[in-house]
What does this fold into?
Amino acid sequence: MAIETDYLVIGAGASGLAFADSLIAEADVEVTLIDRQDAPGGHWLHAYPFLRLHSPSAYYGVNSLPLGQDRIDEAGDNAGFYERATGEEVLDYFGEVASGLERTGRVRILPAHEHLCNGTDGERVRDMKTGDVHDVVVRQKLVDARYLEASVPATHIRPFEAAPDAQVVPVNDLPANADSASSFAVFGSGKTAADACTWLLNNGVEPDRIRWVRPRDMWFDDRTYFQPLDQVGNIMAGIAADTEAAATATDLEDLFDRLEESGRLNRIDRSSPATMYRGTMLSAGELEALRLIEDVVRLGYVERVERDRLVMTQGEVPTRADVLHVDCTALGLANAPARPVFEPGRIVIQSVRHNSPTFNAALLGFVEAHWEDDSEKNRLCPPNPYSSTTGDWPRMMSRTWQTEQDWLNEPDLMGWVSRSRLNLLGALPEHAVEEPAQSAVQSYLTSVGPAVERLGRLSQPASAA
Ligand SMILES: Cc1cc2nc3c(=O)[nH]c(=O)nc-3n(C[C@H](O)[C@H](O)[C@H](O)COP(=O)(O)OP(=O)(O)OC[C@H]3O[C@@H](n4cnc5c(N)ncnc54)[C@H](O)[C@@H]3O)c2cc1C
It folds into this structure.
């Protein structure tokens, strides 16, 4: 097989698809996407049965194709908020996206193809079905769309040992095994663990049958502040609350106190310090339900599950053979260090505006199509790694705000941002004279300068950009 292509995209997950979709809309180029999995969709191919987007479908996916109908949910934990697709719906959507891209005749998608390395005659790619290795000649650029590859419980290497007579399952197997368990021990601090606990509670498991093993406590975004379209004023109110808190905070602890006081961030247990921030959202209903779980173990990380005890980095607690231990410990979003997005012959897809993965990948496609000079492209798209700890929050937020200020001087870029369905603030202009949007915009404009300046002093440096 001799392949030539303008762009070779490694990884056909959310990032690779959103980038390719945006690039071919703006430039007359040929794109080849490869992925070592059997289908496009990245980590969504391994979604647990009750996984949903934690953000609204309205601004997730690729630029050219809406996801969902922008309905407001009427019942359940998400009542009053914009719909959120299930894992299955996201996967179907990416399947549709992939077919649409191929129908343009300018995009080729090769599942079960793995990128090996750079060879003398092109990029070395292995067909995983036949084992054959091919060279792909790349006329313009190699696009690394797996730099932020997600780690999920179904496929990660479990970071603890389990005795053969202990019941331990990845979160994907929780529904199938729940009936036979007397009680549950959920391992993990993040979104997946919160989802597992919520699923158990929603399925009638009493809170005192759930133990939550949390090495760290997490700050959660309040979902109210991430509602787009007709509720976009709330997003703006949330941004204003962030800049107000940042402009006046005396130190990191004070900053998070202010964010909690404003309602922007929540933690499950207000009496326990939270040190983790991963950009995960909860609604007030989910938060209240999760607070019913009182058996929380904070003894560090699980090292070994034995038949009758959990051995952890800071101690041990008893367990039983009839307890179902649920592994939710995968990292999720990659903690990859920052590196330049645009390099000679290569694009490394990374975060630019915080917590907006598909918007960012599409933005990079647009910038690649319209700017020549890599240093200009990098100025407009400085990498902004995902946050893991509270100490990362100041750097992440101030980088977003500074970058967005730079965009204001670029009418073409601003035009794309304002039209993009992936821009969570897209509906702001039509609601800007309504409340709460109007006051929030005023407050943001007053506080963003001091906020960036103050966060600069509280920031931990990201790896070299
Ligand atoms: C559980 C979960 C829920 C999420 N929910 C949301 C949400 O609600 N809203 C939101 O905005 N974001 C959400 N995200 C984040 C977002 O959807 C994406 O997960 C994130 O951008 C990562 O996507 P990706 O394409 O970069 O990585 P992946 O989905 O991990 O895809 C990377 C792909 O690269 C392939 N690959 C790796 N190495 C090679 C190689 N050498 N050769 C060929 N192929 C290779 C892999 O097989 C994989 O398919 C969520 C993430 C997770 C994990």
